[in-house]
Amino acid sequence: MKRTLLLYLLGLFAGSGFVHAGELTNPNASTAIIALGPYCQALSPETMVVKWQTDQPAYGWVEYGETENLGRKQDTVEHGLRRANVRQHRVALEGLRAGTTYWYRVHAKPIRSFGAYKVEFGPEVRSETASFKTLPGPKQALTAVVFNDLHNSLPTFQGVANAVKSVPFDFSLFNGDCLADPAQASQAFTSLAAFTHGVHANKRPAFFVRGNHETRGAYARELAELWNWPGDKPYFAFSAGPVRFLVLDCGEDKSDDHKEYSGLVDFDSFRHAETQWLNAELRSKAFRRATWRVLVVHIPLYPTVKNGGNSKTAQELWEPMLTKARIDLALHAHLHRAAWHPARSVGNPYPLLIGGGNQQTNSTVMVLEADNQRLELRTLNAEGKEVLPVFKKKR
Predict the structure, then answer these.
(1) Residue 1 is assigned to a structural domain of this protein
(2) Position 12 pLDDT exceeds 90
């Protein structure tokens, strides 16, 4: 994987050819490789997005099926055009069955020349056949693992990932500040490759939540190309097993006019639009009828912390709605120290846990388990030891 990724990064910003008389030419198309992935991101128990990158512009598709014989093919069509001449590939597989194993492999044909009336392809490449399992349905049990605040520290990630290597989790969730301060594509791809490989995201979907550090850096505005969120927004909700996950995005941790942002952010407007969406989600049947409701926000809304922990604006907007929403548990990050706050202990209407930091000595991973009778969360350090009280709730 390291050699493949290196080749990809070396060629990432190289010119893809030259344009002449309406035709794109790429003489290196015969050496195309699948440089990153494939990795999976679930939109629902019935929909899985498969993503991968090639080292040069190509046309890509997925073969898949419920056996190793595959038998079905899917690509991406946008406004009548098959997605092609791109390095970042994504294909949504829809109409799947919840809690079901599917086999798949990805294909790509590099584009040697792209003219108005003729396209010439290089030799086709494809990945090895692998399998993924869709998210469990409402009557099935669920196990998930949650990482946070890795700040691109691969040794830290390896430590906490090893702590859950024997856990048969259904999906992983990265709760912000993991691909932190992305300055360029190569930096983001290096971290993403390590994270997706470490959680076996070619077999089990991974969710990436945006933290405030994912909004900083020259590549921050393109970072979303690497992820697929339900609803295509950085705030979203999804169901897995008996749990409805409500994922909110606080934006930055300082006011929009702070000098750090050079006048290039408008999170006030962003949060107000998010508030309208939140109001609709809390009224939805999926949220109201869920057995359990878990809130995921990178920046804690409680307790209110000054000097880099500002959540006052988001708290004022969302507190009236979330107080009435019957949240069973909230998962937070950002403060770089693990903490457990029972309901109403720091002004919070629901119990909340905060994950640890980006050093091997203070990092944590959460393990959430749920069925229709119980909700349980354990918080482990890199040695696999519990560092906070185990949260348990029964119906």
Answers:
(1) no
(2) no
Residue 87: which domain range?
A: 16-133
| Distance (Å) of CA 126 to CA 11, 54, 120, 123 | 19, 10, 18, 10
> Are residues 121 and 158 both part of a single domain?
no
For the chain, the maximum distance between any two Cα atoms, rounded to a whole number of angstroms, is 69
Based on the fold, state whether residues 218 and 289 are members of the same structural domain: yes
Q: Are residues 378 and 267 in the same domain?
A: yes
Question: Which CATH number characterizes residue 303's domain?
Answer: 3.60.21.10
Percent residues over pLDDT 70 in the chain = 91
pTM above 0.90, yes or no: yes
Domain total for the chain? Answer: 2
Domain check: are 292 and 312 in the same one? yes
Q: Are strands 329-332 and 292-297 parallel, antiparallel or unpaired?
A: parallel
Mean pLDDT of the chain: 92
Q: How confident is the model at residue 218 (pLDDT cuts 50, 70, 90)?
A: very high
**Whole-angstrom distance, CA of residue 266 vs CA of residue 251:** 9
- Which CA distances in Å does 246 have to 142, 330, 361? 16, 9, 30
**Within 10 A of 78 (CB to CB), how many other CB atoms are there?**
8
Which CATH number fits the domain that encloses residue 115?
2.60.40.10
Closest by alpha carbon to 243, among 372, 146, 348?
372
**Same domain, yes or no, for 121 and 205?**
no
> What is the average per-residue pLDDT within 362-376?
98
**166 & 208 share domain:** yes
Are 106 and 50 in contact by the 8 Å Cβ rule? The answer is yes
Q: 376: which residues sit within 8 A by CB, 6+ positions away?
A: 368, 369, 370, 390, 391, 392, 393
Lowest mean pLDDT among 138-147, 202-211, 252-261: 252-261
Asked if 81 and 178 sit in the same domain, the reply is: no
Q: What angle do CA 54, 57, 60 make, to 5 degrees?
A: 65
Per-residue confidence (pLDDT) for residue 302, from 0 to 100? 93
State how far the alpha carbon of 206 is from the alpha carbons of 228, 347, 372, in Å: 10, 32, 23
* Interatomic CA distance for residues 357 and 361, integer angstroms: 8
Q: Which of 203, 231, 301 is nearest to 44 (CA)?
A: 231
Q: Is the domain of 150 the same as that of 116?
A: no
